[in-house]
Design a protein that fits this description.
alpha+beta, nine-stranded antiparallel beta sheet
């Protein structure tokens, strides 16, 4: 029962008993004790709720993040996405080994070209063996961000480095130099960053065509162009937005949005997830 309703109910009960003459001295003391307990509860609740309401009130524009020594918004820390996008970036029901989830794609629609929509469907049918993750390939960008593993951000002037728990992957995002000319295939692409106010904007190109966006078969070509936006919206939250462009596969650019959460456990740190080593160990046990 809500706090105010409990007070009203207790007040009405006491008033009715007094009017009927059915409440004795001991019962009046019990009512008084209940009122005191409710009053203390109300004070404590208001004190505890006030800061959290301010942070979680949905006013990220008012949040001023701490700064690095060179004056940039401080994104450093251990972060993790807490959603089901690694399994499927669109709305999906539960499947064996896959939790149900709400999609992260704006409008829940991926604008595939007709041939690509057929390819995605085929990927889904073969996902248990053809998902690049099943082969211990790197997840690519942006999938590595919302894998069920944390990652850690470090910042220095001109550079942002992201260390991922998954396969000890590393991304170096230079904010003081342009992209290199020509096309070079990288599993995680080539990242270059710039600051737009409070947001780190990361432009990523030079991908290969061997990664998927999720375990549901959503894919891309080597013409993939990703633009990531990292914005601190609170002490423990980063708004993460991704724009996807690939003229070989999609009819138009499309976006994903999600929240990244700071890991707050005592002594939290990146641990090991060496996919190939674990796969070899599992294969050895099956012999």
């Amino acid at each position: 029962m809500p706090f105010t309703n409990r007070v009203h109910a207790l007040t009405a009960l006491a008033r009715g008993q007094i009017l009927r003459g059915t409440i004795n001295r001991e019962q009046r003391q019990d009512v008084r004790r209940r009122f005191i307990c409710l009053f203390v509860l109300a004070v404590v609740s208001s004190v505890v709720a006030a800061p959290s309401a301010q942070v979680g009130a949905g006013n990220p524009a008012a949040y001023q993040p701490p700064r690095t020594p060179d004056g940039k918004p401080d994104l450093q820390g251990l972060w993790q996405a807490l959603n089901t996008a690694a399994w499927d970036i669109q709305d999906h029901s539960a499947r064996l080994g896959v939790p149900a989830g709400q999609g992260v794609v704006e409008g829940n629609e991926i604008p595939y070209q007709p041939w690509a929509a057929a390819r995605k469907k085929d990927n889904f049918e073969k996902r248990l063996t053809e998902d690049p993750i099943a082969k211990c390939y790197l997840p690519g960008v942006p999938r590595i961000t919302y894998m069920p593993h944390p990652f850690q951000i470090f910042q220095t002037p001109g550079t942002t480095v992201i260390l991922y728990e998954y396969d000890h992957a590393v991304r170096t995002i230079y904010t003081d130099r342009p992209h290199l000319p020509g096309h070079i295939d990288f599993w995680l692409g080539m990242s270059r960053g710039r600051w737009e106010g409070e947001t780190l904007v990361v432009d990523v190109i030079d991908f290969n065509d061997k990664t998927w966006f999720d375990a549901a078969g959503n894919f891309h070509s080597d013409a993939l162009h990703v633009v990531e936006r990292y914005t601190r919206t609170g002490p423990d939250h980063i708004a993460y937005q991704v724009t996807i462009e690939d003229p070989k596969v999609f009819t138009r650019p499309w976006k994903m949005n999600m929240t990244l959460y700071r890991r707050r456990e005592p002594n939290v740190q990146l641990l090991d997830y060496e996919c190939n080593a674990l796969a070899e160990e599992a294969a050895g046990r099956l012999k």
